[in-house]
Amino acid sequence: MLEIEKITLKNKIVDKDNYFEIGYCEELKIYMMHVLFFGLLAIIDIIK
Length: 48
Known about the structure:
By secondary structure, this protein is an all-alpha fold.
């Protein structure tokens, strides 16, 4: 019984880490898209 609880706990911890990494990557991707978008707008404005 103790072995099963250890395994379950390990899996939960791994899932939490993966979830955090996925969430962080998504936020970073959205942030980078905003930076690129506004950067391009600024460059287009300068070219005009």
